[in-house]
Amino acid sequence: MRSAIWLARTMRHCVRDGRKLRSFDLLPDEAPALGLHRLAPRLTAEEMIRCYRTGYFPLADLPDPRFVQLVSPAARAIIPVSGFQAPSRLLRTVRTAPYEVRFDSDIARVVALCGELADNRRETWLSAPLQRLYLELAGRGVAHTVEIWDNGALVGGLFGIAVGGAFCGESMVSRVRDGSKIAMVHLSRRLAAEGFDFIDCQYMSPHLKQFGAIELSRADYERRLAAALEMPVGFDGFRAEAAARTFRDESGELGVAGCV
Fold it and tell me: What's residue 29's pLDDT?
């Protein structure tokens, strides 16, 4: 999942192997193994789904948000659902914080909040055309949210794309301490209850390592994704009673691992 810091460092130059890439008007599996290329703004919902299923994810091509970059990095970060972990302090917060957790109740609001500019974020990868595409994917049951609410206010959450047994995390947002992290814990529970294999986090970071993220080569990621696409699972089949179950680890803290 992307952050403003990563955006500022990465999005200004479309470079791979020291070369500037020219624009392409191709779908991912029709392009050479460049790892990064651009699409014109006529990208459709069907093409977007195809991108995720072939290992690519989209980014607005700043400074021209009319274009979309499709990215398949050489090193890919994922969190295996069976290996999800979280700090004890965060798990205590999940257990005691008086927040309401919702799934897919207001994806338009979550996406807009994730793309919102701020004093410390003057640019966003989540352009208006991409926001519209994600809302269309939500209508097709492909894009999903985890939302943290406090007295009717959205104070944290995340959204992503479910393809087979892979959940491709796209963006996270917090308006209170740990808002997005609480959403991550609840996402892992839901995915474990449904039998998903992994969360695609795109790029490794210390933030993601605390949740059990590992890094795969592009080839290994593509093999794992191909296997996940064959899994008969779905985000919409969520079994609330399974995801609500918890256990306590040896320290007595609320834990989450595998199907909890």
Answer: 43
Provide the 8-state DSSP code for 74: S
Q: Which residue has the tokens 């959450």?
A: 157
Handedness of CA 208, 178, 169, 62 (dihedral sign): negative
d(CA 156, CA 148): 5
Q: How confident is the model at residue 116 (pLDDT cuts 50, 70, 90)?
A: confident
Task: Name which of 151, 155, 144, 126 is nearest 62 in CA terms.
Answer: 126
- Domains belonging to the chain, first-starting first, are 4-72 (no CATH), 76-255 (3.40.630.70)
Instruction: Please give the DSSP secondary-structure letter assigned to residue 29.
Output: G
CA proximity to 185, closest of 108, 254, 124, 115: 254
Lowest mean pLDDT among 42-51, 90-99, 148-157, 222-231: 42-51
E-assigned strand segments in 84-165: 100-103, 143-150, 153-163
